[in-house]
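Protocol step 4 of 6: structure prediction from sequence.
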Amino acid sequence: MRSKPEEFVLPEWVFQLVRTPLNFLWRGLFKIRYKGTENIPERGGLIVAANHQTYIDPFWLSIPIKRPLRFLAWDAAFDWPLVGKLIELFGAWPLQIEGSDPAAIRRTLQWLRAGEAVVIFPEGGRGRPDGSMLRFKGGAVRLALEADVPILPVTIRGAHRVWPAGQPIPSLGTVVVTYHPLFRVNQKPGEETRACARRESDRLAAVIQSAL
């Protein structure tokens, strides 16, 4: 397991500086369109949960979210040449996809309880080649319950055609990113956390699926 006390992350002013040029780049290359940006809260603890189609997804979805972000990413990706260091600089934290990772969970809860936002891809990896989603894991809902924060569901559509699995570099295309109304986890009285996480994760997936 990869573990470090605190990695260096680029300061927020760097993101503000590159936000506009990146937005122009995405619009020029991928004709990217953003919908529902009025649903993005400016403050308060928040989990951003999105479907996952390409490795560029975090950079696409973060453009309209004008606040500090951290990303939970597959721990193995941090060992990839160049990519590992890049995602670390942009605020990604390593997470073991299979099994328990208490250190990553504690770190994420501290960030959320401090009123900050974290991005999670509940599929645990990229979805299917045709753009359809894998079944969501329960981690995003569990974190929302424990930190008592809402979830911002995000749908990324068309990215699987821009950069399909097996293709070495992205191609030109059209990508639409939709930000849905805030999702509040609803735990029924007496309901076990595991059962709630499973049911609410399916409900969250249905919201994101609705804009594919």
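Step 5 (inspection) to follow. Residues 117 and 164 are 28 Å apart (CA to CA).
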